[in-house]
Amino acid sequence: MNNESYWLVIGFLGQGLFSARFVVQWIKSEREKKSVFPVAFWYFSIGGGLTLLAYAIHKQDPVFIIGQASGLFIYLRNLYFVVYEKNAALQT
């Protein structure tokens, strides 16, 4: 496998992780009969975002790089809120 094929696999892996977050969210929402975002949604967002960011950097695509980097900030911040909320609930 050549270098470009390797990066293509990384790109598809990142897209797969990123897309899986919607499946996870959909299944959880169907089970609860309301719109919810499980913690796994944020982990898939971060995993897919990091992988796609690496791919975008490899491709040297500034639009893709900025989009993924800014998205990662939001995903990490949301995961922080989830963890903070759980810790606060445990301390009360």
Q: How would you explain this protein's 3D organization?
A:
The protein is an all-alpha fold and 92 residues long. The protein has helices at 3-32, 39-59, 62-90. α1 runs antiparallel to α2 (39-59) and α2 runs antiparallel to α3. The protein is elongated.
Q: What topology emerges from the helices and strands here?
A:
Blueprint: H1 3-32, H2 39-59, H3 62-90
Provide key terms for this protein.
92 residues; mainly alpha
One letter per element, helices H and strands E, the order comes to HHH
**Gyration radius, to the nearest Å?**
16 Å
Estimate the mean pLDDT confidence. Answer: 94
Largest sheet: none
Number of E strands:
0
C-alpha termini separation:
55 Å
Helical fraction equals over 70%
Question: Which ranges are low-confidence, i.e. pLDDT below 50, for 5 or more consecutive residues?
Answer: none
Structural class: mainly alpha
Strand content: under 5%
What coarse outline follows from CA principal-axis ratios? elongated
Number of separate structural domains: 1
- Number of H/I helices: 3
Task: Characterize this entry briefly.
The protein has 92 residues and is an all-alpha fold. It has 3 helices and no strands.
